[in-house]
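Structural prep section.
Before we set up the soaks we want a predicted structure of the protein with NAP in place, mainly to decide which crystallisation condition to try first. Input record follows.
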Amino acid sequence: MEKIILDGNVVAQEIKEGLKSRIDLLKNKGITPCLATILVGDNPASETYVRMKGNACKRLGIESIRVHLPEETGTLELIETIKELNNDPSVHGILLQHPVPSQIDERAAFEAIDIRKDVDGVTSTGFGQTALGFGQYPSCTPAAIMKMLDYYQIPIEGKHAVVVGRSPILGKPVSALLLNANATVTTCHSKTANLPEILKHADIVVAAVGLPKFIQGSWLKQGSVVLDAGYNKGNVGDIDYDTCYEAASAITPVPGGIGPITIATLLKHTVDSAEKL
Ligand code: NAP
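Run finished without errors. Recording the tokens verbatim:
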């Protein structure tokens, strides 16, 4: 069976190439697209993600403002910071790095982001628009998964897609996007009974679990398309790559799969917003 390794770096590069002339055009008008990232606390993984996003902005000529708040920040203080960024006309996108420390009401903080600057689809309005099929800025990782399928022309319509995970920024929105693309979607979670049995019927598998090497090749249907959104310590995803590789007809590596497209999508949404605002 021919096997396709779904290369996220190639797709990300294409997205970024497409942004260059749009950024130049904006700059000629005196507008520099600007993404503000907010990191609360000192979670090393989150620090890495935020740094990667900031560096990706710089490489493309997008301004990046990094706001780093202390671990003990409260909900109201964080919301105040978000409001300042909402009111700053030079800022086009706001990304609050998830997860925030436990004393913060993360949902309340997400909701404070101006919908026009919600470039990672985290507000309930952004999510609702995505689910209804007219979202401007779907969450970046779900959008990246759809972009990967589109780039490699993998058919979605009529296929059974199984999404493992139902988080508000990943599992739920990617389930909605797949449904809007006419897949028949099953969304699984920690209380799902007989997950391996469900996966045996999946044409498309999305792993969004947050558990390293969780999904086993023996659970998959031969020839399935496997998209691993997971990113865990030690550079491993949420699938057991070696065994899943055997079963899959197409598979994403980690790193170099969904991750680079996620970042490119965030840059694209920031440029989209700079053009609109
Ligand atoms: P999350 O908020 O922790 O959600 C994990 C989901 O997996 C939950 O819905 C949970 O179910 C489900 N789950 C946990 N254990 C399970 C089990 N044994 N069987 C079935 N489902 C189970 O995580 P997330 O933010 O969605 O992230 C998921 C993964 O994607 C992580 O590895 C993360 O690092 C990665 N990620 C990658 C990118 C990227 O750019 N590539 C971006 C974001 C996240 P319940 O709802 O029942 O608890």
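Observations: Residues 140-259 form a domain with the Rossmann fold fold (CATH 3.40.50.720).
Flagged for discussion at group meeting.
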